[in-house]
Write a structure and sequence with these properties.
CATH superfamily: P-loop containing nucleotide triphosphate hydrolases
Strand order of the largest sheet: 5-2-6-7-1-8
Number of helices: 4
Number of strands: 12
Shape: globular
Bound molecules: zinc ion
CATH class: Alpha Beta
CATH topology: Rossmann fold
Radius of gyration: 16 Å
CATH architecture: 3-Layer(aba) Sandwich
Distance between the termini: 55 Å
Helix content: 10-25%
Largest sheet: 6 strands, parallel
Length: 190
């Protein structure tokens, strides 16, 4: 029998268009090839392309379960088959779940899940999204991806909002946001 995995938290963060979901899909497919039971989760508010798939901006896709809030992630975890000893939960667009996600991740780790958290580290004002400072402290591995600044071509860590909104989270795609470097990023006032 295969040994059960120990709880492990991996973080993939970076601005929009830096390849985060592509990296998530790569890790899920790799884990499946090693015999892990995997589940990808995304927030239900993200309806950009499809309610049940994780889709990259270049069209790669895998099936996902939709969660309305962080607590629902635990409900999905409880649906794993009892015989599954190598378990992976990957959470895309993790910033949608806000600070509640931290405790959920602690619980998943205590249940020996390998957890992959993927999301934006910074909002449109350049402020850190709530779950990340805490998640960084309890993570075993952090991958910080950079995009290509849409203005100057340098490494981009920020996401520039091109549309007018005061909301912290606005679902958008190509044209609504662009990656920007620290110099070219202009924090939204809203
Ligand atoms: Zn730039």
């Amino acid at each position: 029998m295969t040994e059960a995995t120990l709880g492990r938290l991996e973080i993939i963060c970076g601005p929009m268009f830096s390849g985060k979901t592509t990296e998530l899909i790569r890790r899920i497919e790799e884990a499946r090839n090693f015999g892990f039971t995997t589940r990808a989760i995304k927030p239900t508010t993200d309806t950009r392309y499809s309610a049940l798939d994780l889709v990259t901006h270049t069209g790669q896709r895998i099936q996902a379960s939709a969660a309305m809030n962080a607590a629902e992630i635990l409900a999905i975890a409880k649906e794993f088959p009892i015989e599954a000893r190598m378990k992976v939960i990957a959470i895309d667009e993790a910033h949608f779940f806000a600070a509640d996600l931290s405790q959920v991740c602690v619980t998943l780790l205590s249940w020996d899940f390998r957890v992959i958290v993927v999301g934006l580290e910074f909002d449109h004002r350049g402020d850190v999204f709530d779950p990340f400072p805490t998640l960084f402290n309890i993570s075993h591995n952090i991958t910080r991806l950079v995009g290509l600044c849409a203005v100057c071509g340098c490494d981009a860590i920020h996401t520039q909002r091109m549309i007018d909104s005061k909301e912290r989270i606005v679902v958008g795609g190509v044209g609504d946001y662009e990656p920007r470097c620290v110099k070219c990023f202009a924090p939204s006032r809203g």
